[in-house]
Amino acid sequence: MLHVDGSCHCGRIQFEAEVDPSKVTACHCTDCQKMTGAPFRVVVPAAKEHFKLLQGQPKTYLKIAESGNRRLQAFCPDCGASIYATSEFNQEFFGLRVGTLTQRAELIPQKQIWHRSAMTWLNQLDHIPVFEKSPG
């Protein structure tokens, strides 16, 4: 288990958790693409007893997935940063958004799901120019 801490972009929501790094998943579903504005989202589950909100209260909305799963999406009401998703009825696990975690570099995806929606250009990124900061 790895102790992690995180926050939304503006810092209003802060939390900590214990997570298993072997459970990190990259999701390529079109819902994750739209909700992040990115080609995929990286998530790690935290059990209810290992997740603690330290500051703030996220706003939630209900998203019904293609699978029929009813998922509460939690995000900061100020900056809009996505914090986690959990089941509408059984909130025993929280799918933490790895990008909000201080330890995100240590949480390497161990599997990819909904790959049928993956952007075909993802495997070409190592062939394009790289800049350490914006080239201006």
Features:
39% strand, 10 strands, Metal Binding Protein, Guanine Nucleotide Exchange Factor, Chain A, mainly beta, 1 helix
> Which percent band covers the strand fraction?
35-45%
Q: Looking across the biggest beta sheet, what order are the strands in?
A: 6-7-8-9-4-3-10
How much helicity do the residues have? under 10%
Number of structurally distinct domains: 1
- Tell me the overall shape: globular
What is the mean predicted local confidence, pLDDT? Answer: 95
Task: Produce a short descriptive summary.
With 136 residues, this protein is mainly beta. It is 5% helix and 39% strand.
Give the helix/strand layout:
Layout lengths: L1 E6 L6 E6 L5 E3 L2 H7 L4 E7 L3 E5 L3 E6 L5 E6 L6 E6 L5 E5 L13 E3 L23
Parallel strand pairs: 3-10
Antiparallel strand pairs: 1-2, 2-5, 3-4, 4-9, 6-7, 7-8, 8-9
Folded structure, characterized:
This protein is mainly beta. It has a single domain (2-121), classed as Metal Binding Protein, Guanine Nucleotide Exchange Factor, Chain A. Helices cover 5% and strands 39% of the residues. It has 1 helix and 10 strands. The chain has one helix spanning 30-36, and strands at 2-7, 14-19, 25-27, 41-47, 51-55, 59-64, 70-75, 82-87, 93-97, 111-113. A hairpin with a 6-residue loop joins strand 1 (2-7) and strand 2. The protein is globular and about 45 Å long. The relative contact order is 0.25. The model has no long low-confidence stretch (mean pLDDT 95).
